[in-house]
Amino acid sequence: MDKTKSKIHYAWWILVGLCLMVGLGKGALNNTAGLFITPVAKDLGIGIGNLTLYLSISSIVTLIFLPIGGKMMAKYDIKALLIGAIILQAGAFAAFGFMKAVWGWYILSIPLAVGGVFITVIAGPVLINQWFKKSNGLALGIMGAAAGALGAISQPIAGNLIASRGWSQTYIIIGAAVLIIVIPVILLLIRKSPKDKGLQPYGAAADGEAATDMNDKGIAMAVAKKSGAFYALTLFFFLITAIASFSIHIPTFLANKGYSVEFSGTVMGIYMIGVLLGALILGVLSDKIGSKNTSLLAMLLGILSIFMLLFFSESATLITIAAGILGFMAASIGTLAPTLASTLFGSKDYSQIYAMASLGLAVASIIALPAYGYVYDFTGTYTMVLWIIVAMFVINIVAIFYAFKSKKQLVDQGHWN
């Protein structure tokens, strides 16, 4: 018995694999994209707007493919799907290095986005939900923190490679490196569910609940998608992503207030530290006090950070603290959004429900960034934007209460089984 207890549960090896796969997909591929924009546009002799159109195409493809990806995750072999996905995502990234005209980015943005749907959006939350009954929030937090850490490592590496070898070779090197690392990780570590290893989910053995029972418990997709809880969750996804998108505008906000570029860099560094800490702490809190209470706490902290930006913008210290708090809250996208989905709807059709609700994330990415920019262009200040963000936080608080009220109605009607 002691020997059995001393063994590391395989769920933690799943988490290691996800940290590498999701972390490299987000950090080394998605998050380094901005570093290539200026050198590529300059060499091709095109405008930055024309080049970055590929990012909009990618967002639209993500929006279309998310519900399809959720169904595929539920139906097909997980290893084959993820290997195919990383070949599409990292392969398209590497192929950018061979392109000599902007249409190449437009075309390759399609496989880049399709692969990214599995690697960076769906797979992590779905597999953690399958493998962790206990410490689900902690696992999501660790995965989010790992993605941030790998992104922080990848950024300077990519920047140095672009400077020394050029953007073309850097695309190829990074894309090939991700393929070489991630494919063996998927083959060696990733399993769809505990029953594939003859195990129960981590924590299930404590109360004797069978793995198969746990994995089938929840609300069916057909019922969930018609419920108020589902629409409230989708709204939460949309608004939290829209709020977090403001981080791109923080340097411009600071410049408008008279702060230097160097100070903006420091503030954004603190923001990223907030994201890393938030991913871990919000994950732990969701296990301790529940996803509902943790989400409400995150929203209140977010309101505090915006009030600090509105009323204490003359204080460099308070602005820096506000950015850290806002980063802490932004981590809720990767940590609290999946745990809310699990708490509200269970594991029965989780992959499909989470993928459908994630449409809110994709839509927000397309709308929020340019909307903030247009408001600033028309008003010359971000004051109206900040008040809109406060309103979005308040709406999210209402949405959380409504979602859990709707869930109770579904359970009382006998839909949780």
Automatic annotation (TrEMBL):
Main localisation: membrane
PANTHER family: MONOCARBOXYLATE MFS PERMEASE (PTHR11360:SF290), MONOCARBOXYLATE TRANSPORTER (PTHR11360)
Ranges annotated as spanning the membrane: 12-29, 44-68, 80-99, 105-126, 138-158, 170-190, 229-251, 263-284, 296-312, 318-341, 353-372, 384-404
Major facilitator superfamily (MFS) profile domain ranges (all copies): 11-408
UniProt entry keywords in alphabetical sequence: Membrane, Transmembrane, Transmembrane helix, Transport
Official protein name in the record: MFS transporter
Record-linked InterPro entries: MFS, MFS_dom, MFS_trans_sf, Proton-linked_MCT
Membrane topology: Multi-pass membrane protein
Matches recorded under Pfam families: MFS_1 (PF07690)
SUPFAM superfamilies: MFS general substrate transporter (SSF103473)
Localization: Cell membrane
